[in-house]
Amino acid sequence: MKTIIRSILITLACSSSALAAVHHGPQEGSFLKVLFLAFCALIIWCQLLPTVKVFIDTLKRATDAKQQEAKQQVTH
Questions:
Q1: How many domains are there within the chain?
Q2: Percentage of the chain lying above the pLDDT 70 cut
Q3: CA angle, 19 as apex, 15 and 22 as ends, to 5°?
Q4: Alpha-carbon torsion angle 32, 34, 40, 44, nearest 10
C-alpha cells in the first residue's frame, strides 16, 4: 500500500508542471477537463498495478508447477 501511495504522489508531482504548462487557447480544454482526465488516468493506473502483479504471480505459479512436474517425471 505504501508503494502505491508513493507512486501516486510521484506521479502527481511529475505531472504538476505539465498541468501548469497547459496553454488555454480559445479551442483548448479547460483546467477542469485536464484535471478530470488526470483523475481518470490515476484510476486506471491504480487498477493496473495490482492486475500486473496478479498476472506475474500467476505466471510464476504456472512455471513452478511445470518445473515440479518435470522433476517428478525425471525421478520416476
A1: 1
A2: 79
A3: 140
A4: -160
What the block records as the C-alpha cell of 68 is 515440479
pLDDT in tens, 8-54: 777 777 766 665 665 555 556 688 888 999 999 999 999 999 999 99
List of residues 6+ apart from 28 with CB closer than 8 A? 22
- Quote the pLDDT of residue 27: 58
- For residue 17, what is its C-alpha cell? 508542471
The residue length of the chain stands at: 76
Q: Which residue has the cell 513452478?
A: 64
How do residues 22-35 score in pLDDT, each as one tens digit?
Answer: 555 555 668 888 89
**What is the spatial distance between Cα 76 and Cα 72, in angstroms, rounded to a whole number?**
6
